[in-house]
Amino acid sequence: MYRLSKLRFGFPVFLFLALFLDGAVSQVFSVQMFRYPTTMISHLVVLWLVCGVIFEADGAFDMPLARWAAVAGAVFDLYYTGIFGVYVFIFPLVIYVTRQLVAWISPNFLSGLLIYFIDIAVVEGLGYLASRAVHLNDAAGSAFLVNTLGPTLAFNLAMFVILYFPIRWVYNWLK
């Protein structure tokens, strides 16, 4: 059924649109998002991927989300971080974690918010550990939790609340 739907072409188009919107949001709101000592990081790509798993849960479509997540991770690494390999593995891991959580939790708006909370924490935590491993970041773990993870979670959960229903409408239109 996936091969016959508009979702086959629409999903990657909107995925890469979300990828570039991450950078645009960060650029336009840089004064508000990157005010010392706090940092808020936009993760619209993760939002699109998580919504893909949540809206795929009805079983009608079997999308190759992990492959698209790896491709988006490669582009994200090359375009934003300059270190190839970090998000190539983190984004497919988010797909795996989300699918495991969706198997345990019935997907709806509130459970999707919880799943997205967990996924953003995983993405930011693994990104922090990877940057610590290659000595790009020397911030203490407590400073990371207070100055980066907290504001990032708040921003991205607000984006989830604002964009959940428009994204659901787009998915239903693409199906």
Automatic annotation (TrEMBL):
Nucleotide-binding among keywords: no
InterPro entries for this protein: Cell_shape_determining_MreD
Membrane topology type: Multi-pass membrane protein
Transmembrane intervals: 40-57, 78-97, 109-131, 143-167
Source species, domain of life: Bacteria
Keyword entries, A-Z: Cell membrane, Cell shape, Membrane, Transmembrane, Transmembrane helix
Pfam families from the UniProt entry: MreD
Record localization: Cell membrane
Claim: Cell membrane is one of the keywords in the record: yes
Chief location: membrane
NCBIfam families attached to this UniProt entry: shape_MreD (TIGR03426)
Family the entry assigns: Belongs to the MreD family.
Protein name: Rod shape-determining protein MreD
Gene: mreD
